[in-house]
Amino acid sequence: MNSGRAIGGAPDRLAFGGGQPLRGRLRLPGDKSISHRALIFAALAHGTSVITNLGTGADVGATARVLAGLGVIIASDGGAVVVEGSGVEGLTEPGDWLDCENSGTAMRVLAGVLAGRPFLSVLSGDASLRSRPMGRIVEPLRAMGAHVDGPDGATRAPLVLRGDALHGIRYELPVASAQVKTCVLLAGLQADGQTVVVSPAPSRDHTERMLRALGAPITVDGLAVTVTRGAPRPFEMAVPGDPSSAAFLAVAAAITPGSEVVIEGLSANPTRVGFVTVLKRMGCDIELTATGEVCGEPVGDLHVRASELHGTTIEGDEVPNVIDEIPALAVAAAFAEGVTDVRDAAELVVKESNRIGTLRVVVGKLGAGVETRAYGLVVRRGAAGAAAFASHGDHRIAMAMAVAAHALPAESTVEGWRVVASSYPEFAHDLARLSADDTS
Ligand code: S3P
Asked: What domain range is 418 assigned to?
């Protein structure tokens, strides 16, 4: 059976199954978080930047289109993306509202840029994005002097921004969110005085690493990050592969007997590879080897072999480090001996779907006992032979269930596949290519 086959010519419903081992080496499209930042930092710089291996997902495309709507010239040149930056002051008032589509990162991070621009802009997106919390960025932006409007006191998008002269603030983040941290820091690069953002726990630190590598005025002291007015310089960067995409293939290899894969040139940023630590703790034969650094970002190769897994507990400060990988890890848990307990994961509720509720439904279909709590879930080993899954409009749920379906003995389906385009459009193709019986 060829995993990732469209059913009846309907590309929105794919069939997987048969448990063919995954074998081989591959490189993944660029990391989504780094790709958003590379495009935005290139736009904020004065001069030409060249980005290769940019993420191929629709979310990154949305950021590029929003920047184009603000007058930034972005062109493709072979495999490279060339951005002509004119500095933040070179951005121009858009002629229409700006569509962030399904991307929380695009909306929250670009709001920080637009908060200081002296023109009117409207950020909106699809129904999922318009239901996600925006009060978390609006509160600090207003405290810095920005004018932001929107439904229910601007707690949700569409967000209407009319930028103004901003002043620096010290802001204690209520949640460990890299999107909110980055939003405030990018507003801070346009503000008078110092802007200090203090996180309650570590979150992904691409903004800090990249801005520092690009010469912007940023300092990091533990969980406090300080910026003053300034800009990054133009740059050339090959974006490392996306560890959040790799996590799905790593779990697929871990739970499918006979598998052994190497994923090369991956972002090895310590704030992103918590899933490697969790899988290792579950008994997985998995190793991440450092190979270099690009623009302040560590790069490495990930080696995974199929293993007998057992349950674990994921809680506290580890959670922000694996927040996007919990759907994949929940599938690993459903194929593991014993119990896996995910705690302190309230942020799962406000992702592309309510991932606590969604995982209860989809992982439950594996015959795994799934209990949910307010801020987490408990997963036990499942015993299903086949299942019909739905993506619930969430790209990471779709890929997690494809991984589960691939490992099941009989043909299983994932409905609503189209959403995978948000982050990893090539996923079904890559899974099939690694499968031993792939004939493509
Ligand atoms: C991201 C931060 C995380 C993550 C998202 C990407 C980023 O969100 O879930 O997929 O690029 O900064 P939060 O900041 O809401 O935790």
From this structure: 5-30+240-434
